């Protein structure tokens, strides 16, 4: 059996991170099993569906590197892959259900149905359809349709319990009587979600449905329809719900929820996927940081977690930093180069200096844009007004350090050096310790205050060799 899975978004908005997670799980499962991953656009909600959202979702999936084998933009042998283009299929399959006695035309008006529902609720009965049109004769149906009367197609819900085994939830039982006869095709010929999904999944030979927990209740109606068609249902895996720290369903209130916003904020797609993968699945070696594209057969349905997953942006940021550090230096350089303003002196520096700077700072940043703040450490001539800095500056030992460093920087400048080296820095520090007899805090805070005008920052032996000598000179004279 070839595994065939699908991601079936509705193009009613931008790709949600929950959707991206579902798409990724399906994609990973197809990869692990040597199967196919299909993108199907569920655009039967004609009021809310828009082509621009379909295009945007496909673009975001591409950005994430979740590429489908079949879909509306790439084709495939089970198309069309947009529900709006499959009307003839839903109609033909609905006719099969009518012919086999599993569905029927229903002429009841909205008003009548609403009134009956209200009455049932008032009388504390389940508001199920009362079956008025269930047993109309074929002649009556034909003549009412011929007379132009509007009709929906309603499915005869079997009166029995349904049981299935979900890869995540285990044995799921739907007791008898949970649903009454339900509509599968509206009067305007548009199929209802639960029906269209079954027709599509069956006709596209989908073997596994991996989706979010909120779809679990839909499985009951879907199982009924599979049975009516005599089709074996796919295997199901309902992943965990995504929730915010307040344990409510993840929504815009919790911050950015659409993938394009993460793209705008310069998140690394591999990091976003890594984090999303952990929200509902766990690595067999308990790894937190990995590239999902290298999971291979490690990815399986058995390691899905049942409990709702709390979306924690701080963890995502941490993972982003981990991915950033492991990128090739040249890649980091290209990315930071795109973010640093064109007028910044960074762009005029030699390639080797840029690489060394990236090497020093990459371990201290989670985002490419944080690099700019660190660069300031090398170029600023601002003076800190912190109490700690002022204290260090006022020690009686500090002017001695300043006097010595002034002459050393001057010598280097006259010798034509554009930068001092790490060795130069070590010699300075040895001199201050050995000759000037300045030690401990007075030594390192003193040197820092003179060379950077700050009380804190990265290690001097790393940043001083990267600071242009004219900046050091300016600082020493301030
Ligand atoms: N179109 C549905 C959604 O966007 C997908 C349902 C399914 O995966 O069966 O939630």
Shape: elongated
Strand order of the largest sheet: 3-4-7
Q: Proportion of β residues? A: 5-15%
CATH architecture level-2 label of the domain at 86-239: 3-Layer(aba) Sandwich
Q: Report the major sheet.
A: 3 strands, antiparallel
Number of helices: 19
Low-confidence parts, pLDDT < 50 over ≥5 residues? none
Average predicted local confidence, pLDDT = 96
SSE order: EHEHHEHHEEEEHEHEEHHEHHHHHHHHHH
Bound molecules: glutamic acid
**Residues in helices, as a percent range:** 40-55%
Q: Which CATH class of the domain at 86-239 is shown? A: Alpha Beta
Q: Say how many strands there are.
A: 11
Q: How does the SSE layout of this entry go?
A:
Elements: E1 4-7, H1 17-33, E2 36-39, H2 51-64, H3 87-99, E3 103-106, H4 110-122, H5 138-146, E4 152-155, E5 162-166, E6 170-174, E7 182-185, H6 193-203, E8 208-212, H7 218-229, E9 235-239, E10 242-243, H8 259-264, H9 269-278, E11 309-310, H10 313-325, H11 329-339, H12 351-361, H13 370-379, H14 387-394, H15 398-414, H16 422-434, H17 440-452, H18 460-463, H19 469-477
Parallel strand pairs: 1-2, 8-9, 10-11
Antiparallel strand pairs: 3-4, 4-7, 5-6
Helix pairs in contact: 6-7, 9-10, 11-12, 15-17, 15-19
This protein binds glutamic acid.
Glutamic acid binds next to loops.
Notes on the protein architecture:
The chain has 478 residues and is mostly helical. Among the domains are: 154 residues, HUPs (Rossmann fold); 90 residues. Helix content is 45%, strand content 9%. Strands 3-4-7 form a three-stranded antiparallel sheet. Strand 1, helix 1 and strand 2 form a beta-alpha-beta unit. Helix 11 packs across helix 12. The longest helix is centred in the N-terminal third of the chain and has 17 residues. The radius of gyration is 33 Å and the shape is elongated. The model has no long low-confidence stretch (mean pLDDT 96). The site of glutamic acid (GLU) has 7 residues, from loops. The site of glutamic acid has 7 residues, from loops.
């Amino acid at each position: 059996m070839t595994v065939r899975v699908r991601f079936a978004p509705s193009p009613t908005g931008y790709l949600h991170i929950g959707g991206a997670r579902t798409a990724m799980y399906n994609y990973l499962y197809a990869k692990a099993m040597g199967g196919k991953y299909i993108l199907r656009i569920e655009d039967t909600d004609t009021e809310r569906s828009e082509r621009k959202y379909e295009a945007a979702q496909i673009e975001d999936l591409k950005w994430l590197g979740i590429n489908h084998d079949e879909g509306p933009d790439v084709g495939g042998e089970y198309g069309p892959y947009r529900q709006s283009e499959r009307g003839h299929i839903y109609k033909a399959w609905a006719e099969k259900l009518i012919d086999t006695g599993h569905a029927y035309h229903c002429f009841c008006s909205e008003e009548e149905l609403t009134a009956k529902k209200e009455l049932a609720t008032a009388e504390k009965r389940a508001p199920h359809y009362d079956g008025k049109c269930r047993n109309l004769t074929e002649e009556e149906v034909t003549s009412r349709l011929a007379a132009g009367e509007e009709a929906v197609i309603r499915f005869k819900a079997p009166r029995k319990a349904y049981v299935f085994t979900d890869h995540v939830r285990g044995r799921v039982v739907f007791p008898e009587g949970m649903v009454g006869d339900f509509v599968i095709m509206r009067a305007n010929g548009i199929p209802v979600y639960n029906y269209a999904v079954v027709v599509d999944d069956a006709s596209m030979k989908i073997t596994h449905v991996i989706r979010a927990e909120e779809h679990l209740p839909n499985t009951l109606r879907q199982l009924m329809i599979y049975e009516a068609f005599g089709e074996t249902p796919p295997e199901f895996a309902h992943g965990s719900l995504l929730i915010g720290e307040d344990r409510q369903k993840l929504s815009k209130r919790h911050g950015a929820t659409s993938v394009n916003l993460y793209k705008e904020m310069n998140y690394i797609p591999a990091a976003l996927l890594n984090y999303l993968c952990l929200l509902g699945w766990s690595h067999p070696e308990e790894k937190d940081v990995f590239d999902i594209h290298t999971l291979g057969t490690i990815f399986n349905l058995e390691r899905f977690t049942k409990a709702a997953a709390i979306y924690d942006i701080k963890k995502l940021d941490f993972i982003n930093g981990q991915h950033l550090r492991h990128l090739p230096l040249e890649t980091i350089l290209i990315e930071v180069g795109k973010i640093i303003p064109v007028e910044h002196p960074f762009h005029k520096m030699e390639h080797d200096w840029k690489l060394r700077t990236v090497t020093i700072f990459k371990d201290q940043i989670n985002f490419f844009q944080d690099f700019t703040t660190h660069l300031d450490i090398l170029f600023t001539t601002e003076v800190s007004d912190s109490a700690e800095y002022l204290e260090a500056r006022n020690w009686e030992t500090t002017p001695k350090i300043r006097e010595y460093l002034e002459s050393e920087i001057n010598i280097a400048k006259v010798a034509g050096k554009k930068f001092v080296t790490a060795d130069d820095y070590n010699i300075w520090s040895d001199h201050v310790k050995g000759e000037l007899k300045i030690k401990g805090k007075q030594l390192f805070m003193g040197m820092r205050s003179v060379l950077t005008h700050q009380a804190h920052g990265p290690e001097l032996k790393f940043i001083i060799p990267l600071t242009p000598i004219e900046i050091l000179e300016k600082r020493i004279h301030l």
